[in-house]
Design goal:
Layout (H helix, E strand, L loop, with lengths): L18 H8 L2 H7 L6 H14 L9 E10 L2 E10 L7 E5 L8 E3 L11 E3 L3 H5 L9 E5 L3 H13 L4 E5 L20 H9 L2 H11 L9 H17 L4 E4 L2 E8 L4 E7 L5 E6 L1 E4 L3 E3 L3 H4 L9
Length: 305
């Protein structure tokens, strides 16, 4: 993503929260200019977010769990909201009152129907916290399900981090699909396009999503696709295939064992089945919007104007 699409620049180029201000504060503005690249490092943009968040630290209460939201009603009118939040398990909730309430529920990890997470079956969001436990165990095989950016990154990460371990990628497509980041397609993210999309009829919204979903959903950066293909090609040339691609395939039966997970991979084209004994099965199957009503409780059905 271009550094100009940061938290504020498109709305206020002179803002003190811009990525350029961040670079200046870190003493890297000249270095970034000399780099001649519009795209910051991921770790750099992550640090930028933390830098910006620290500027409003006095306005944010971190590590609080909201347990309930109640309307404060007077003469049949909702005057404000009482938000109950606690710090740490077992602590007494602390009340906050607010005239306005904004819900930013974010996304929740999604697993396909019938898949149950366990000691050896993970969602990709759990990878980094849990992988350290396996480093000393010398894993022999990982299996990664999915064809989007997260799946490709997890596959590349495991292949690089465990140089003696086999990594199997399973997905129903023929190959990883590249993200469409061409100039005209990227206009769908312009501020004016967002407003236009919001006001459009539902059938037009569906049409645009079908046309341009490949700008963001279930697609992979072309550079990463090329890198993974080079790895596969090089290993075939050397006669040692440690990165295995099971395309046009799906995961069938999954059974956790004492030391791993037994996976049946089925070819959608031929019906051929392959049994994989893996240390871990990782589903990089994306996220779904969280349900705000589970947080609002009894407030949810109340019409607010």
């Amino acid at each position: 993503m271009s550094f100009l699409k940061d938290l504020v620049t498109l709305r206020n180029p002179a803002s003190e929260f811009s990525f350029l201000c961040y670079l200046h504060s870190r003493g890297r503005l000249v270095d970034f200019i000399n780099h001649k690249n519009l795209f910051p490092l991921r770790v750099e943009f992550h640090d930028y977010f933390e830098w910006a968040a620290a500027k409003v630290d006095d306005l944010v209460a971190y590590h609080h769990e909201v347990v309930a939201v109640h309307p404060v009603v007077q003469d049949g009118t909702v005057l404000c909201f009482e938000v109950l939040a606690r710090v740490g398990a077992g602590s007494d909730p602390v009340p906050y009152r607010a005239r306005n309430l904004v819900l930013s529920m974010g996304l929740e990890p999604y697993l396909p129907d019938g898949v149950v997470a366990g000691a050896r079956v993970w969602h990709s969001s759990e990878l980094l916290p849990r992988i350290e436990d396996l480093i000393d165990g010398r894993p022999t095989r990982f299996t990664v399900v999915g064809a989007g950016q997260s799946a490709a990154e997890v596959t590349a990460f495991l292949h690089r981090k465990f140089p003696r371990t086999e990594v199997c990628a399973v997905f129903s497509r023929y190959g990883y699909s590249p993200a469409d980041d061409s100039a005209f397609a990227n206009q769908i993210f312009d501020p004016a396009a967002v407003e236009q999309f919001f006001m459009a009829p539902e059938d037009v919204k569906r049409m645009l999503m079908n046309y341009h979903g490949n700008t963001n959903y279930s697609v992979v950066d072309l550079e990463l696709i090329d890198d993974l293909y080079r790895r596969v090609y090089q290993e075939r040339a050397l006669g040692v295939e440690r990165l295995r691609i099971f395309n046009v395939s799906r995961v069938g039966e999954v059974r956790e064992t004492e030391n791993g997970v037994r996976i049946t991979v089925e070819s959608l084209a031929t019906g051929e089945r392959t049994l994989l004994e893996s240390d871990v099965l990782i589903y990089a199957t994306g996220y779904r919007p969280a349900d705000p009503l589970q947080l609002l409780g009894g407030l949810g059905p109340i019409p607010l104007t």
